[in-house]
Amino acid sequence: MFDMTTDISFRHETRPPTLLRWRGEVLLHVFGRIGRRQLARLLRANASYLRRHLADGSFVELIASVDGKEAGCGSVSFYDEMPSPDNPTGRCAYIMNIYVRPAYRRRGVADTTVRLLIMLARRRGAGKIYLESTDCACNLYKKLGFRPMDGYLKL
Known about the structure:
Blueprint: E1 8-13, H1 16-31, H2 36-55, E2 59-66, E3 69-80, E4 91-100, H3 109-123, E5 128-131, H4 138-143
Parallel strand pairs: 4-5
Antiparallel strand pairs: 1-2, 2-3, 3-4
């Protein structure tokens, strides 16, 4: 459980240097040791991604602060698929980069971040919302209503 007195605030971040700083932190946390050159290449590729997707509104990142200090982040990417009975609008949202710095964990930051991203996705008409998870975060996402998906293969 988290401390209900924690003051969590969020801002919609659009500045590429800040977004890339957070993305680097997420990559290092998720993938462990990444060589300096590989990280630099990835961040250049991410900068290109951000230029395209910030411009067309298909990428949104939230930065969470606890008691005025940056504590974590989360983002959502929007895309369209062909409309179907289970998604008549064809609009999809992919939640990613949910990350909370160790000192701020177990305070509700990740939970609140994901809830806000889900609300944003629903407001933008997403009929499907996806995410990938590490094993340690699965319980959080299940608590928020996410279910494992059968029938998907990855190449």
